[in-house]
Amino acid sequence: MPKDSRLPDCCCSAIRSIPGKPDNLRTEHLPDVTVPGLLVQGTRDAFGKPDEFDQHFTSYAGPLEQVWLDGAAHDPKPAYDDQIIAATAAWLAAL
């Protein structure tokens, strides 16, 4: 089945590959990403904190919406499922 070009590509990526290593960033590709993006991230994620995303995602070329899960770590627990589903549904509906 061909991909509908109106739909965004989806991916998951930590801002760094090793927690606590600020010089080990994975952001060089962001200026090349032009599709709409939804960032759903925990505020306690060791792979990238809110202030780091604010700093590094300014180079994201496409439109980007950020949703922060207060208190969530890198692997959000089922307690966050409703927030993740609602944020994703609202983002998709707005495309």
The helix content is: 10-25%
- What is the gyration radius calculated from CA atoms? 14 Å
- Ranges where pLDDT stays below 50 over 5 or more residues in a row are 1-5
What strand line-up does the widest sheet have?
1-2
The H/E string reads EHEH
Please tally the β strands and state the result. Answer: 2
Shape: flat
Tell me about the biggest sheet?
A: 2 strands, parallel
| Distance, first to last CA | 21 Å
Structural class: alpha+beta
Q: Number of DSSP helices?
A: 2
Q: What fraction of the residues are assigned to beta strands by DSSP?
A: 5-15%
Mean pLDDT over the residues: 82
In terms of topology, how is this protein built?
Elements: E1 37-42, H1 50-56, E2 64-69, H2 81-94
Parallel strand pairs: 1-2
Overview of the structural elements:
With 95 residues, the chain is α+β, with helices and mostly antiparallel strands. 22% of the residues lie in helices and 13% in strands. The chain has helices at 50-56, 81-94, and strands spanning 37-42, 64-69. Strands 1-2 form a two-stranded parallel sheet. β1 (37-42), α1 (50-56) and β2 form a beta-alpha-beta unit. The radius of gyration is 14 Å and the shape is flat. Mean pLDDT is 82; it is low at 1-5.
Keywords:
two-stranded parallel sheet; 2 helices; 2 strands; alpha+beta
Please outline what is shown here:
The chain has about 100 residues and is of the alpha+beta class.
